[in-house]
Amino acid sequence: MFQTFDVIVVGAGHAGCEAAAAAANMGSQVLLITMNMQTIAQMSCNPAMGGIAKGQIVREIDALGGYSGLVSDESMIQFRMLNRSKGPAMWSPRSQNDRMIFAQRWRERLEQTHNVSFYQDMVKGLLVENGSVKGVLTGLGNEIRSKTVVLTNGTFLNGIIHIGEKRLGGGRVSEKASEGLTEQLISCGFESDRLKTGTPPRVDGRSLDYSKMEEQPGDAEISGFSYLPSPKPSTQKSCWITYTNTEVHEHLKTGFDRSPMYTGRIGGTGPRYCPSIEDKISRFAERERHQLFVEPEGWNTVEVYVNGFSTSLPEEVQYQALKKVPGFENVKFFRPGYAIEYDFFPPTQLNYSLETKHLQNLFFAGQINGTTGYEEAACQGLMAGINAHLKVKQQDPLILKRSEAYIGVLIDDLISKGTQEPYRMFTSRAEYRTLLRQDNADLRLTEKSFRLGLASEERMQIMSKKKAEVDDIKKIAATLPLESDDINDVLDEVFSAKIIEKQKLEKILLRPNVQLKDILRKSSKVREALSGFSTDGLEQAEIQIKYQVYIDKEGELVKRMSQMENLSIPSHFDYTKLQALSAEAKEKLIKVRPQTLGQASRISGINPSDVQVLLVYMGR
To answer: CATH number for the 457-556 domain, one of 3.40.50.300, 3.30.870.10, 1.10.10.1800, 1.10.10.60?
Structure first.
């Protein structure tokens, strides 16, 4: 009944979808196994993509040839570029999406991707022979063989849903948990642990009074995520902001004695940066209110997501407390919020390719590695799919450095440091964030992916054209002289000193608050010189001109650090014979088995003196 596949992907969430698409587009025969074909690419939590640092990841996925950016653009109901008031290293695209269209578009793209086959069943075990994975065993008793397997089980591994004192087995509301895999992997030498995440109530938008809330409209200009031409909405739906208050907090506290968080029924650690509402009012007791984002779920539904009110309190406590929020006085529930506890495997048990150290041909991606968020899961899935294909073809894996992509930062953090709580990406985690901007992901990554056979010819052509445009614009800016009549009106508007002698456009753009779009609006000379160039090319050129000094400084830092990154450590190096290493350092190094001295330096518990010991020894 079943052929032998190159890659089997277990799970059809964001990680699984990207893994299947990447491996298939590179030429592998892929089987995507999911427990429910109707929930492919389900947005289990909020109906949004991107945000701070997450938007950069979506653009990197797109630049590499993944589908998340395209699907986000096709399903968006609102777009905002966050942090526009800050420098471009902090700009982060975010979209509000139609939950149903998002899942529909993902499924359509997968079904239109050659080499992807589907099968609905639960995977309850792996076929293991001589330390290598050879396929999977399903709940219906089918043995399906493959050359590699990618596990993207999300929150389904022994998942338990908590609502107050109610406890239900499941990986998502109304969906059963996956059992058997954790126990088998432990028997193969893996360590596992438990994490927790949560979700807020969904409510009927018709029951809300938006006049008591602050409107949050989308941007007038929609740039979107994908570097390919993609449809953008002609109109947008607003989100809304409201706040809790002391009355809400006091009512929530009445349910604490029945909260699974405070009675010890939940043992897993929850996400630090997306706490439940009960956690917020406990940890930040001095605050009289907390912000809630009221987010529509789509174009043709009245369902609303109450972002910021994640909770596992009893349903009646959630309901009565929410009724005390301005605008929610007459709220009607679609379903209550809940917490979910699930198994994960500390990611220090992985290689940089996301292949496991204990079993060959087995890859992990997504929440199974201790991460949280669609974007973090999707980029891991993409990399696992790419590297599973490359493993089948007996080629070297694709490893992105910390200086090349946020994806590289994420994977290095996971493998070098591990995580005791759900890992979420932030711009502050990247030491080279001036290089890793959302606007230049295509320039950083598309050519690399094209050489592997993933990024399409169309992507490569668009990127090459943009690169050439940027070079031409920068040459014009460096040589175009501007008279006082050409530019002083613009300078006066932004309270910048007027010029009395000719100055090149490049020098004018180096001034604070002076933007190219304002110069183009006022100066016919500049408009004529730069006519015919794309908006994307003009923006990229302006960023490079304004921030070249900082870009060069980070580039020099990358070069200095590359010495340690390029210094390999043998995989079976005996750290115990280095007497100068601390006991903690030996323990951490033996556990993680870093591949380079650079990776060793980033392991939690490794101090600079330990790095010096390794550097001296490796130098010998």
So the answer is: 1.10.10.1800
